[in-house]
Amino acid sequence: MGDEDAGWWQYRLVVAGSDVGDLEDRLFASGALSITLLDAEDQPILEPAPGETPLWDRVVLVALYPGEPTAQALAREISTSLGHAVEATQLERLADEAWERSWMAHFEPMDFGNGLWIVPSFAEPPEPEAVNVRLDPGLAFGTGTHPTTSLCLRHLAQHPPVGQSVVDYGCGSGVLAIAALMLGASTVWATDLDEQALVASRDNAVANRVDTNLLLSLPDAVPDWRADLLVANILHGPLLALRDTLVDRVRDGGTVVLSGVLQEQARELEAHYAAMLDGIEVTVEEDWCRLCGTVRPRA
Questions:
Q1: pTM of this prediction?
Q2: What's the pLDDT score for residue 10?
């Protein structure tokens, strides 16, 4: 390989999400040092079931090489493996360290109002004195980039849970639990069906120095107390099925925040919870909704 071939090279392909697993293996085998997956069509990803990895229908796959790959031969190999041509490819040489800036360019600090930001670890906070949750975006559901998470973060920013106990039901990356703690919550219990989510939540809480008052467990290990606030950013079906369980985790007069609901699903969910919650408010962001209400005093 001559000097003209040295340096970092980026190989981009647009492929079906179902093809990603095999293509990742082939690209790594061909010498790729890293592979980044990006949405090709601005398609929202719903929360996966335990053990599932969510992917978009069409994916931009970006492979980084420490030298020019034999792109034409690689494209032929991939096309033969898939049984069809790769939809689009692009090969470009990157200047030194440009590969890092290229990845970082996809992710910027996100402002959720009232001084709450999600800031990638490599970025400088736009408002150093604000509440800056350090979290790197990825495929894990719940990093603030999706409207369902954004709706929950905006609620926390508008109603800081100072001195309150909080439940984050379906914690994912732990972003809501961490934000609640950094906004003044006294204790947060975060739960998820996926043990890897609990590990990620703990790691992210440690990175933000708020792990001391964070409790983590699977749903069947619920602590024996009722919180002031519960946030459940999951999906419409589980929210319907878990109504009694979720509301039972909150004290009389406490607040329940539900997200992960499409606009056409909101009315059914609101009617379902109206038997147990007062003053339900529905807030819309893009095609998604957040429902918020207070627990009716129990008899």
A1: 0.69
A2: 81
